[in-house]
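User: Predict the complex with coenzyme A.
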Amino acid sequence: MATSYPSELVQALTLRDGTRVVVRPIRPEDRQIEQEFVQRLSDESRYFRFMSALRELNEAMLSRFTQIDYDREMALIAVVSENGLETEIGVARYVVNADGVSCEFAVAVADAWQHRGVGSILIRNLVEVARARGLQVMEGIVLAGNHKMLGLMNALGFSIRSEPGDAGAKHVAKQLNASPAALPRTSASIAADVN
Ligand SMILES: CC(C)(COP(=O)(O)OP(=O)(O)OC[C@H]1O[C@@H](n2cnc3c(N)ncnc32)[C@H](O)[C@@H]1OP(=O)(O)O)[C@@H](O)C(=O)NCCC(=O)NCCS
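Assistant: Here is the predicted structure with coenzyme A placed in the model:
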């Protein structure tokens, strides 16, 4: 059951190419744009994100991805609007692990929108939400062949190590040192970071 919508995390910002984007927590009403986002991903991007040959989200996954409990998970989507219609161009999400102090995250950006800073913005914002909520570690699994993501992880200060017994995957992690003043940042400071 979803807890109340964290509207303080809604943020309008401008990409370095001038595109206006809104980054906001996902809502139950986002089922359709979330599904369209996944369907439009290239096979490679979908495989890197889901590590399977899935082509679209089934109903259960769609519910799980859009009807979230904001206390123990977060999904930030980046959307652009045209003629009042929103298109999802990226999403980053975390789920708090059973230990209550670490979380596992994943991210994906629409192929046509990659290399414009969207992935960096989403991950940075997600890190700040996790930090502000007292989480200590953000971690994830990245396929060893996903050089773009591993490069981005390196650039964002994540550690990268091999998965014991799994040459095909890397474990990435970032220590989150709680800083209460960190949330939310202004769009200007984020734009400065990604430029
Ligand atoms: C990985 C992914 C999220 C990156 O999204 P993006 O919006 O292209 O990322 P950004 O534009 O913010 O960042 C890319 C930046 O990271 C940095 N970066 C990337 N690779 C780098 C490298 N090898 N070394 C140093 N910096 C690097 C650069 O600053 C780069 O900017 P550039 O694209 O202009 O060269 C996107 O490629 C994607 O969705 N891939 C498919 C799904 C996926 O792999 N998800 C991760 C598994 S959970």
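The radius of gyration is 16 Å.
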